Amino acid sequence: MVALASRRHYESGNEIPGWKEHDATCGFPVYRLDLLRPQIMPPPANKLVSAWRQLTIDIPLKLRLIREVWALIRKHDIRVICIGELVSMAWLAVFFRRLTGTRMVLYVHGEEVTQRLNVGSFGRKREAHLKSADAVVAVSRFTERVLVEQMGVPPEQICLIENGVDTRRFSPGPADLALQARYGLTGRRLVVAVGRLVPRKGFDKTIQAWKRVCTAQPDAHLLIVGDGPQRAELQALAAASGVSDRITFAGSVSDAELLAAYRSASLFVMPNRTMPDGDTEGFGLVFLEANACGRAVVGGRAGGAVEAVADGVSGLLVDGESVEEIGNAIIRILGDDAFRHELEEGALRHAQMNSWTHRVGIFQNLCRRIQGNGEKHV
Hints:
Blueprint: E1 3-6, H1 19-25, E2 30-33, H2 47-76, E3 80-83, H3 86-100, E4 103-108, H4 111-114, H5 126-132, E5 135-138, H6 141-149, E6 158-160, H7 177-182, E7 189-194, H8 203-216, E8 220-225, H9 231-240, E9 247-251, H10 255-264, E10 265-270, H11 285-292, E11 297-300, H12 305-308, E12 315-318, H13 323-335, H14 337-353, H15 356-371
Parallel strand pairs: 1-2, 3-4, 4-5, 5-6, 7-8, 7-10, 8-9, 10-11, 11-12
Helix pairs in contact: 3-5, 8-13, 11-14
């Protein structure tokens, strides 16, 4: 396998932390461009601005990307192109299938097919791209149902490969004292939340429940790892709720710091919910990552999270719209050591049952099947 990725975040434009270290140890070649698609910008003020962006940003970027992919196809004799960004990148696989005959796999997580997109966006081509693919991978049964029922993808075209976790990378370990000291959290019981700061993750509801959590568990502290467009809103909400001193926003972190955060947690929480526009969690790999580190989780009873979290075994599922349910679940787990340890043991078993080792084999067999020759690259 050969991977092509970006060096910078599409939202902030900042360099992705730890990408060099990741690429050096991941076990397969990773090639990087600055960006694979245009950086996220405010909507154009008019058609002239839109045309200017097309000429000066979009088209030059696409040409660089085509040159890079064409070079990789020749260098590695690639026969299958797998795209993980349906809305903005499927065109690339379509282009090279027409040009070189490479097979086309679209890897679909959930939000890109559940969310209603503007008519003028790339979203209008989603169905056509999905139906033209040689195979579509769904990361959960929830996503599989959406592909069939809302996108009209034939069931026989879909390969279900539920998200798995790398249990070699994510594993139990001691709390990281350096991380606690860095954020001034020594002696606190950490509840860790990880994810992009967007409404469907439920961090706002967690913050609203936090004052009651702190009343029941005075040493509890919420550590939110990740960044996104909702950050300023969440920080203002924490201040308005009177709990800003009990919540830390860590922003984006390196792979090593992410592992340290999981291991330092007494509990992981991400009470996801489905938004009015259909935006929802396709699976929620972070739940399995926390489980693999021996941590119980609190997730939302929405989208594919109901498959990622074994309710009552690896954690608890709650109504992601209910501040009361979220608070009760956190207080229950933190306040009952025996119950928390029971969930932590179940979390480890659940993670081991959902290791990437098996999932990778399914994906490789899919690529061999659609190309008819197992010796070529993806």
